[in-house]
Amino acid sequence: MEDITEIIDIDNSEFEVFTPDEDNYSEGSIKVLEGLEAVRKRPAMYIGDIGERGLHHLIQEVVDNSIDEALAGFCKNIIVKLHKDGGCSVQDDGRGIPTGPHPVKQISTLEVVMCTLHAGGKFDKNSYKVSGGLHGVGVSCVNALSSFVEVIVEREGKKYRQTYSEGIPTISVQEIGDSERTGTYVYFRPDATIFKTVEFKFQRTADRLRELAFLNQAITITTIDEREGYEEVFHYQGGLRDFVEYVDSGEKTLTKPVYIAGEDVNEAGSRTQVEICFQYNSNYSENVLSYVNNINTIEGGTHVSGFRSALTRTLNNYVNNVVKKNKLQLTGDDFREGLTAIISVKVPEPQFEGQTKTKLGNGEIEGIVRAIVNDKLTQFLDSNPNDAKKIVEKALLAAEARIESRKKKELIRRKGALESSTLPGKLADCSMNTPEDCEIYIVEGDSAGGSAKQGRDRRFQAILPLKGKILNVQKARVHKMLENDEVKAIFTALGTSYGEDFDITKLRYGKVILMADADVDGSHIRTLLMTLFFNYMKELILNGNLYIAQPPLYKLKKGKTELYAFNDAERDEIIERLRKDNVKTKTVVVVDEEQINEGEGEEISVRRDGIIISRFKGLGEMNPEQLWSTTMNPDTRTLLQVSIGEAAQATLVFQTLMGDKVEPRRDFIEKNAQYVKNLDV
Ligand code: 28F
Prior knowledge:
Helix content is 37%, strand content 21%. It is α+β, with helices and mostly antiparallel strands. 43% of the residues are buried.
């Protein structure tokens, strides 16, 4: 067996599977087997990880092929189905993967595509293939990591089929009938011996497919969950315009969406496509979502900087040459207040950099985007004077506020309110001073704060109690935010400063844990706090320092046994278990349910079958020992880590929950746990 690490270099290497010296079929297929064997041995190298994210990456890889076929102009409809048996299928109405003998390998091209590492990839820069996930590893990896795959191709009047197990064909490509349509169908069942979980999440799948439908105008993507009987159809005739409106659906908008598109072809003939849509809303934060080849570039990159510099330059030119009456010098920040923008570029050979490999590094893209935006935005401003006026007015207000805010900030700074030497009075700090081992609990309410202070391990756990609701920073300018006592307390306790001055190396705690009640008010407070972090300390989230504590909802008590449940299903499970114990020990079963109120603090308790079931109304009702053992003790608690993963979704959730319109909020309040991933602690 070769040293597999030499074969694998997912981002840079082009696998030379079509080289003429490989024309011996048996020799070639041995190489194929070795390739796919490597994928099974080290799946994380190909798909990122073997958790929920990697699992969903499989769907992505298959859908990417359909998207490529659509971008080539041959496919309009894609159907993604999560099957009852745990599998997933993707169907498109493209040309169908060629089934005839492969010019070099003799065997069916379909088999080559399905079983050869990188065979479906792009072979030259002029090929249409631009999509391809973060890893862009191709359908053969999906095949290798599936216990069963079935492909059906309809093409040239016929229907063909092949099946595989662990990436190895179980039958050769067979003609199974006639067909008047064309297209490709891929069904796969992920290998449960490889993945930590093989349960596809509808919401996660649908969120990504919606995004793809926005980014690739006019394609229709139907998402079906056969297990639950849901179906959602994504089709956006307006493409990025619809995307911007969707993101801003909770906001009052000031302008119509400005749409810019352009293309650059260099001397070598390689094409870069640029598509941007933006508009302004009545809020103060900037909201830019950027994509390269349909991949969300969370950390931005040259496409984003090109857009930003062109926006500043063009709008400043307009103000100076057309409006003429301003006395203030406008900065880039002034033009980004209330801006919502989607930037989507298609680049033949993207280079990804940064902490999460989601930052575009190609230097040439900055100039390409800048030139296109300068040109098209100038045209827009000239022909839409009303929108231009609104944008300029908004920027002038922002500039005034910025100057005002700087004065106040200076005042606050001079007073020393934000100096980390003066820690907030209500902070109960921990005694250790190795930040990476320390935690801070930001706790809603004084009484819960009291319990937490008593229950904690004061060596490494600090408690910061907050009074009531904190400021909605999405609707407040910086100086207002800095006048807010709760915000000030958080900033000084963390020690990092905020916004552009944010410095992660100054963070005083390795874990920042939000602890609020499990009810609607608690959820509101959590969202407000997350908005604060999202807007002013994004890196803290990216760096994985932000967590949410999970207090239990129920206490179940039978005799001396006390158990806690974190949701209804768990509660019922425990009751069932305790009941079975009843039978074993022949305890008299009290069938009648009687309401009792037992113990201080706990809301309503009922006695059912001899089990006392108490529902905690809030954190404040737990005594210090209970709070410690259920929610704060690292050995027994469950924390949720806040991730920015689906930045588009997170932004949207924040926007919708925190925006000015009330309507969309209701729909979202139930779903707002999406940007939080479970963490095994
Ligand atoms: C459900 C997933 O994979 N759809 C695809 C095509 C169409 C062609 C193609 C795919 C041939 C040699 C690479 C057809 N006719 N959906 C899909 N639709 N791949 S994948 O060609 C693959 C190349 O190696 C296709 C003419 N050209 C291309």
